[in-house]
Design goal:
By secondary structure, the chain is α+β, with helices and mostly antiparallel strands. The protein has a single domain, classed as Up-down Bundle (Outer membrane efflux proteins (OEP)), CATH 1.20.1600. The chain has helices spanning 3-15, 50-61, 66-69, 73-85, 87-108, 149-215, 221-256, 292-313, 358-424, 430-464, and strands at residues 114-123, 130-144, 318-329, 341-350. A 4-stranded antiparallel β-sheet has the order 1-2-3-4, covered by helices on one side. It is elongated and about 130 Å long. This is Efflux transporter outer membrane subunit. Keywords: Lipoprotein, Membrane, Palmitate, Transmembrane, Transmembrane beta strand. InterPro entries: MdtP/NodT-like (IPR010131), OMP_efflux (IPR003423). It comes from Luteimonas yindakuii. It is found in: Cell outer membrane.
């Protein structure tokens, strides 16, 4: 390669990326408390242990693997199947691959692109036909990045790739939570179906007894019709829950990306699937910054800020280099003979003078995009804080509801036993027995519903704190 072209390329590479016009990254001000307030569901801690507790929760929640958090092996297997075959997650993974390729394309603009070529030029007319052969290696249109435009575009592409990667993690986190919630919902609906079927059998027996007593004159027609009303109510509930169970299985099939092995489905009871310790009091809110969706928003902000640097650089002159080195001859056989070497070097300078306001408008748009990204980043932090706050508050409320529901069921069951005994002894009317049956049935249904809500809320809290994107925690 000739000395002038070699020197020009060396200077170009040295001068490329000498400056950048990217502004400082603005600081987010989400206006949220520094920590979550203590609730009865959080563990108390002394002032000296607060930092240690916060660090423990930060690593124990956001980094704990979903196989460590969900204790049931059937649910673990179902989550694993979903992560392998779910189509939404597959699209998110492919989006990461696309963003990685886009970043590599943009990064390639920072180095010269070398190309080899061979050319035949034949001219003729009134003059004799003349052939010119040439072979060369050259650089075409390489821009000297004196003001950091290419560098900023590459940095923006990198941040967009990182944002897409975090979005894929967020999609995985959401999928894990959806599968766990769907699995628990199926367990609850199966339990409600079992309760409805058992209640239907019991009420059919009561209706048969009431009809026999009515035939013997020991019960009125009103008693029979009231018993029949309870039977049909239970029959309708059983049919409704059977349909809901089928819908739950269909939902899990969609999430899993294919048929689900019946052995992976839950039993007819809401199991305790989550393994989570109480959160310490005064948990700092900056643990939210490790959530994938918030990290994606931060990368989006950095990408938008880099675009401002590229828009600013467009106001300044740009220099592009084109050059080649090779051989040229009028005869193909003499193309590589001595004395046929040739080289060319063509720098070009573009100075923007009048663009009709295009450059200022582009800078204004880039600035607005940065401000929008900043607002979205702050909003994602606020939304994350609210999700955790809601889950913590609901956890405390649900603990009380579960305890009250268990006591209510005990009382309703005892009431039904006493009412049945008094009715059999002729001390109470049939209406009082029916009320006791309704109360016990409603207490059973309510306890299943509140237990489901408690389990789903634990999953929501795990997701809100950024857990679920790793299979196993750190050892």
């Amino acid at each position: 390669m000739s000395k002038p072209l070699t020197l020009a390329l060396t200077v170009a590479l040295a001068a490329s990326g000498c400056a950048t016009l990217e502004p400082p990254l603005p600081q987010a001000a989400p206006a949220i408390p520094a920590e979550w307030t203590s609730t009865p569901g959080t563990a108390s801690s002394t002032t000296g242990d607060a930092a240690a507790d916060a660090d423990a929760v930060d690593s124990a929640v956001s980094d704990i693997g979903w196989r460590d958090f969900f204790a049931d092996p059937r649910l673990q297997a179902l989550i694993g199947q979903s992560l392998d075959h779910n189509r939404d997650l597959r699209v998110a993974v492919l989006n990461v691959e696309r963003a990685r390729a886009q970043y590599r394309i943009q990064r390639a603009d920072r180095v010269p692109s070398l190309g080899a070529g061979a050319e035949l030029l034949r001219t003729g007319g009134d003059a004799p036909v003349n052939d010119a052969y040439s072979v060369g290696l050259g650089v075409a249109g390489f821009e000297l990045d004196l003001f950091g435009r290419v560098h900023n575009l590459g940095a923006a592409a990198l941040q967009q790739y990182l944002a897409t990667e975090e979005a894929q993690r967020s999609a995985q986190l959401a999928l894990v939570a959806e599968v766990a919630a769907g699995w628990l919902t199926l367990a609850a609906d199966q339990e409600l179906l079992r309760i409805a079927e058992a209640t239907l059998r019991s009420r059919e027996a009561s209706l048969s007894l009431a009809e026999r007593r009515h035939a013997l004159g020991g019960a009125s027609a009103l008693d029979v019709n009231q018993a029949r009303t309870l039977v049909e109510t239970a029959r309708a509930d059983a049919a409704r829950y059977a349909g809901q169970v089928a819908r739950d299985v269909n939902a899990l099939t969609l999430l899993a990306g294919g048929p689900v092995d019946p052995a992976l489905l839950p039993d007819a009871a809401v199991p305790q699937v989550a393994v989570a310790a109480p959160l310490p009091a005064g948990l700092p809110s900056d643990v939210l910054l490790r959530r994938p969706d918030i990290m994606a928003a931060e990368h989006g902000l950095r990408a938008a800020n880099a675009h401002i640097g590229a828009a600013r650089a467009a106001f300044f002159p740009s220099i592009t280099l084109t050059g080649s080195v090779g051989t040229a001859s009028n005869e193909l056989s003499g193309l590589f003979d001595s004395g046929t070497r040739a080289w060319s070097f063509m720098p070009a300078v573009n100075i923007p003078i009048f663009q009709g306001g295009r450059l200022r408008a582009a800078l204004g748009m880039a600035t607005a995009d940065r401000d929008i990204a900043l607002a979205q980043y702050e909003q994602s932090i606020q939304a994350g804080f609210r999700e955790v706050s809601d889950a913590l508050a609901l956890q405390t409320s649900l603990d009380g509801q579960i305890a009250a529901g268990e006591r209510l069921l005990d009382a309703a069951t005892r009431t039904l036993e006493l009412s049945q005994a008094r009715y059999d002894a002729g001390l109470d009317s049939h209406l009082q027995l029916l009320d006791a049956q309704r109360g016990q049935y409603a207490a059973l249904q309510g306890l299943v519903a509140v237990r489901l809500a408690g389990q789903v809320n634990q999953v929501s809290l795990y997701k809100a704190l950024g857990g679920g994107w790793r299979e196993r925690g750190d050892i």
